[in-house]
Amino acid sequence: MIVGGGLVGMAMAAALGGAGIPVTLVESEKLPDLTGEAFDGRSSAIAYGSQQVLAGIGAWDHIAPFAEPIRDIRVSDGGWQFEGASPFFVHYHFADLNPETIPGARSHEGGGGHPPFGWIIENRAVRIGLVKRLQEIPAVTHIPGMRVDEIDFAGKSNLATLSDGRRIRARLVIGADGRASAVRRMAGIGVKELGYKHDAIVCTVTHERPHDGVAHEHFLPIGPFAMLPMTDDAEGRHRSSIVWTEDARIIPMLLKLTDAELGLEIERRFGTTLGRILPIGPRFTYPLKMILADTYIKEGLAITGDAAHGMHPIAGQGFNMGVRDVAALGQVLVDAWRGGLDLGSLQVLEGYARWRRFDNLMMLVVTDGLTRLFSNDLPPVRLLRDLGFFFFNKAKPLKRFAMRHAMGIVGDLPRLVRGEKL
Ligand SMILES: Cc1cc2nc3c(=O)[nH]c(=O)nc-3n(C[C@H](O)[C@H](O)[C@H](O)COP(=O)(O)OP(=O)(O)OC[C@H]3O[C@@H](n4cnc5c(N)ncnc54)[C@H](O)[C@@H]3O)c2cc1C
C-alpha cells in the first residue's frame, strides 16, 4: 500500500504495479483537484536520469509532449540593487559531455546524439501523465479523494483506516505523503528540520524572445532566482517558469502587484535578455525548509520522496531524488518479489535505506550549503564566489562531473536510471 499519490507515490505505484506487484495507492485529493490548475503552479527540472525512470515505468510517452529540453544552463552571480549579473558565470552546454559516457543516450534522437541535461515540465502535466499510466496497469488500485487517517503497525501486516472508515491490510506500507508525512508521524519516526529566511514565488511568464532551451539561475542577495524554459503555449507565446526566492516579509506586497508591475520587478532581477517579461496565470508561494527523517524504514514500512527528505529548490533536485528512491526501492522490492521474499522484512528494506540515505543526505548538504553561500552579499564572500565561478568554468573535468550530477547519472545507478527494465 502506498500512502500519498503525489509525484513520487504515483511513480512508485507505476513501477511496482507495472512489474506485477499488487498495489493500493491512496491519495487524499480528488483527481480533478490534484490535476487542476490551482493545485500546483510549479514546473520541475526533470533530470536526464529521472526521465529514464519515467520512461522505464511507462509514463514518459504521456508526459513528453509537455516537456521542454534543457540544452544550456547559465549560473550567474547578481548583486545589490539588481545591477544585473556579474561577468562571472558558469556555463554548461549539453554537447560538452561525451554521449558514450551517458547510459541510454543512444535511444535519444536529435541533438547530434547528445541527450539534453533534462527537461522542464509543469508538475500538473507530470501528474496527468502518471494518472494516465496508472489507469493502464491492472495491478494498481488507485483510491483518490480518500485520506489515510490511521495505521496500526502492530502485527505481521499493517492495518490502515481511511477517512470513509474503510480498512486496508498491507504487509508493506510506503509513505509518499510529502513533507508533513502522517505516515512518518504514525510510525514514530522523528525528523530534523532547518528553515530558510526566504520563501519562493512561482509563476509562469511569457517573454518576447525565445529562450533557446537555456535554464538560468541568477543568485541575488536574498537567494536564487531561476528562469526555466517551458514549451511555447497554444498561441505560440514563449514561456518560462520562474522560481524566485524572496524575503518572506515582502512576498505579500509583490503578490499584490499587477502583472505589468510584477513583470518589471522580474526584469529588474533577471534583466531583459528575453525582452519584455509578463507573468501569466496564478502566482504561487511555497515556504522553504530542509527536512530529513531519522530513518527511512521500519519493519513493514518504507518512506520515500519529500516524506523522507525535503530540500531547498536551489538545484531543482527534490523530485529527482524522489524518482531515484522509486528506482532503488522499486528494484529492491521487485527483486525480492521475484525471489519469493517477504517485502516487509527489514532485511529487504535495508537494501533500499543503504542505497538511498547517503545519496539524499549528500544532496541535502550540498543544496543547503549552496543556499547559504549564495544568499549572502558580504563583499569578501561575493569575491570568493566569483573567483570560484571563474576557475570552475575553466576546470573542464570538474565541470563535466557537475554536469553528470545535474543529469542524475553519478553513483550506483538503479537499473531504471540506466535505461534498463525493472
Ligand atoms: C518552489 C519549488 C520548486 C521546486 N522545483 C523542483 C525542480 O525543479 N525539480 C525537482 O526535482 N524538484 C523540485 N522541487 C521539489 C519537488 O516539488 C518535491 O520534491 C516533490 O513534489 C515531492 O513529491 P512527493 O510526491 O514526495 O510529495 P508531495 O508532492 O507533497 O505529495 C504528497 C501527496 O500525499 C498526499 N497525502 C498527504 N497526506 C496524505 C494522507 N494522510 N493520506 C493520503 N494522501 C496523503 C498529498 O495530498 C500529496 O498529493 C521544488 C519544490 C519547490 C517548493
Give a short account of the largest sheet: 7 strands, mixed
Q: Strand portion, in percent?
A: 25-35%
Strand order of the largest sheet: 6-5-15-16-17-14-18
Give the termini distance in whole angstroms: 19 Å
| CATH H-level superfamily of the domain at 2-67 and 118-195 and 290-374 and 390-406 | FAD/NAD(P)-binding domain
Could you name the ranges where pLDDT drops below 50 across 5 or more consecutive residues? none
List the helices and strands and how they pair.
Layout: E1 2-3, H1 7-18, E2 23-27, H2 31-34, E3 43-47, H3 48-56, H4 60-63, E4 68-70, E5 72-77, E6 89-93, E7 118-122, H5 123-135, E8 140-144, E9 148-152, E10 158-162, E11 167-170, E12 173-175, H6 182-186, E13 191-195, E14 198-207, E15 214-220, E16 223-229, E17 238-247, H7 251-255, H8 259-270, E18 277-286, E19 289-293, E20 297-298, E21 301-303, E22 309-310, H9 318-338, H10 346-374, H11 379-394, H12 396-406
Parallel strand pairs: 1-2, 1-12, 2-8, 5-15, 12-21
Antiparallel strand pairs: 3-7, 4-7, 5-6, 9-10, 10-11, 13-19, 14-17, 14-18, 15-16, 16-17, 19-22, 20-21
Helix pairs in contact: 1-5, 1-9, 3-9, 9-10
